[in-house]
Amino acid sequence: MNRKYQHLVVAVTAALLGTACATNPDGSIKQDDRVVGAIIGAVAGCGIASATGGKCAQGAVVGAAAGFLIGWYFESKKVADAQTINKEYEQKKGYQVPKKDIQAAAFKTEVKPQAPAASGEREVVVTSNTDLVGYGDKVPVVEQKYAIYDEKNQLIESKTEKLTAVDGAGRYQTESKFKLPASAKDKKYRVETTLTSNGKDVKKNAYMVSFLEDGKMLLAGL
User: Which residues span the domain enclosing 149?
Assistant: First the structure.
């Protein structure tokens, strides 16, 4: 990469980093994943532009923009203990709570749009609740797989996140956030969330998300 173009990429990176850090409760610093994507996009964009005889400045800007198309945030927490959830399911007619195992009993997902930003980006919040029941001693590895598809059924983004708070039976809540660009207006996206336990798919939830010109958002469960 040409030396003068390297300075541009450094400048883009510095500008992004300046607004990208968040302080965790323990005092540590967490980098916004969207910025990491933008930085990678800027470097890649500059490299591609240089290789094809284009201008690094244009490549860096395009690459950075592409890195920001999908921003990702994820957290998981336990919201009800094992005793409460096991008792709740034991009172359900016909339901047998496992005595020597821990199994997923329910997986519900809710998708909520946030108000559009001045830039036209729209944040979408995906909240899921997972019920694990049973009296087994072996704690399963529970994960959520996320996938976002465009109108042509092309995969835009996929993530697999481990529920770090799982220590046995109980109710667990996860929250994920991603951003759709201003160009998402009048387009449809399919958002899928899949619960897995010990590597096996348990249940999938899917929504069709579409934005209208007036800023409203339509949701349809699939």
Answer: 73-221
Note whether 188 and 89 are same-domain residues: yes
Indicate the residue among 67, 89, 113 that finishes a domain: 67
Shared domain for 106 and 192, answered yes or no, is: yes
**Which residues have a Cβ under 8 Å from the Cβ of 19 and sit 6 or more positions away?**
35
For residues 136 and 110, what is the distance between their CA atoms, to the nearest angstrom? 29
Residue 137's contacts (CB-CB under 8 Å, 6 or more residues apart) are: none
pLDDT digits (tens, 9 = 90+) for 68-115: 336 778 999 999 999 999 999 999 988 999 999 999 999 999 888 777
Map residue 95 onto helix, strand or coil. coil
Residue numbers in the chain where pLDDT is lower than 70: 1-70, 211-222
Angle 207-193-24 (CA atoms, 0-180°, nearest 5)?
115
Angstrom distance (rounded) from CA 41 to CA 33: 12
Predicted TM-score (pTM) of this structure: 0.66
The reply to whether 113 and 144 lie within a common domain is: yes
Number of domains forming the structure of the chain: 2
